[in-house]
């Protein structure tokens, strides 16, 4: 008997100092892992199909000043582990797909040139996403590659959602709300179809609360509004990013405090949010464990702002059937979920405190009109699914 195997798909998710990777056969992740501290002191970890730790890619002889330099080490480690099986394609997370891309696409040199032009829109992410694609194109020119965009899922949002109240010509030039975390939202929308089909066609706010935070209004599986904007700075406060901010503050910092563009980038992307407010940490584990009143203040402000945005997104949806929590904070920080849900009680959300403390998937009471759920996101699996679909075309 011959067994037809599903094509083997590699997934790379390259950030500024980390590189996440996965190798998938169908829905099964055969290998997964991450290199952290890229460019500083890289450390790798990896897991096998059962999630148990295995020997990671050997970084000893890798230069590793950036994630693209790690590519050949990871690829040969994976091939050895996978018994030399042929890789059908490599899928990548690319933060910004601009106006043109509402779905994943096959990588070509023309596409890379087009994505290069988007670097100024996501200066801290896009170059890191593109570097391993270029490297793979050089090392393995025959290996199909697919770019999966974090902005793509939001291209369905209506123009009134995407436009800022600036001169219309700027909107036409592309100064608009793109939204991010789209791969995560798409995964959750698909997961809802399986876990809670009665909600999948309803009005759902998904709160992706991790190092980066945003929320998305999803109606019948389609994004209609989201909190992140032109860049990944807008909307909810985050670990180190400010979230929504009166643009007058930026003018004040430039005009009165004479801050340079570089200093502002550093302030708004790296020194604001939870770390800026608390002076303690960007990590909710540390904030929740801290007795520092400013850590408490930062967490309170965070929950307050998330709840305000949930209500704003409910308005965009014309009502609310469910709130889904996901990503590092959303999946793990029960006190944060509790505070947000309590602040949403007026919308009809009745929190089941015990279920929330126990991290159960359903954290609203059975009689709650608005349901609350916790669903673990899996952007890499979403990339693997997309990549498989694109190369099958
Ligand atoms: P992500 O970007 O989705 O990987 O989320 C990372 C963030 O999730 C970390 O910086 C922490 O703030 C948060 N986090 C992870 N685990 C926990 C936990 N057990 N309790 C509270 N926060 C957590």
């Amino acid at each position: 008997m011959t067994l037809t195997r599903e094509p083997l798909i590699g997934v790379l998710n390259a950030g500024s100092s980390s590189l996440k990777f996965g190798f998938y056969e169908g829905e099964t992740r055969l290998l997964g892992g991450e290199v952290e501290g890229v460019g500083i002191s890289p450390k790798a970890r990896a897991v096998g199909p059962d999630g148990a730790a295995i020997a990671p890619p050997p970084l000893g002889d890798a230069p590793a000043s950036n994630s693209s330099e790690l590519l050949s080490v990871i690829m040969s480690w994976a091939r050895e582990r996978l018994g030399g099986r042929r890789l059908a394609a490599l899928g990548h997370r690319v933060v910004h797909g601009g106006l043109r891309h509402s779905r994943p696409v096959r990588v070509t040199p023309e596409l890379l040139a087009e994505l290069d032009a988007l670097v100024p829109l996501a200066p801290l992410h896009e170059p890191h996403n593109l570097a391993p694609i270029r490297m793979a194109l050089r090392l393995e020119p025959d290996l199909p590659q697919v770019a999966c965009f974090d902005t793509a899922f939001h291209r369905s949002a209506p123009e009134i959602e995407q436009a800022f109240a600036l001169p219309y010509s700027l909107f036409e030039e592309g100064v608009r709300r793109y939204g991010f975390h789209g791969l995560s939202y798409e995964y959750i929308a698909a997961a809802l179809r399986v876990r809670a089909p009665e909600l999948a066609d309803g009005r759902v706010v998904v709160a992706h609360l991790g190092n980066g935070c945003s929320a998305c209004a999803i109606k019948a599986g389609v994004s209609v509004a989201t909190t992140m904007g032109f860049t990944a700075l807008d909307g909810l406060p985050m670990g180190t990013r400010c979230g929504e901010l009166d643009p007058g503050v930026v003018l004040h910092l430039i005009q009165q405090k004479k801050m340079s563009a570089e200093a502002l980038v550093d302030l708004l992307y790296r020194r604001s949010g939870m770390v800026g407010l608390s002076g303690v940490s960007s990590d909710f584990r540390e904030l929740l464990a801290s007795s520092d009143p400013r850590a408490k203040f930062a967490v309170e402000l965070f929950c307050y702002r998330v709840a305000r945005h949930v209500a704003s997104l409910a308005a965009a949806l014309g009502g609310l059937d469910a709130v889904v929590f996901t990503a590092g904070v959303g999946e793990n920080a029960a006190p944060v979920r509790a505070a947000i849900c309590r602040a949403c009680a007026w919308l009809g959300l009745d929190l089941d405190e015990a279920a929330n403390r126990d991290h159960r998937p359903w954290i609203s009471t059975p009689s709650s009109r608005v349901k609350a759920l916790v669903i673990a996101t899996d952007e890499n699996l979403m990339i693997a699914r997309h990549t498989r679909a694109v190369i099958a075309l």
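Residues 8-149 form a domain with the Nucleotidyltransferase; domain 5 fold (CATH 3.30.420.40). The chain is about 40% helix and 20% strand.
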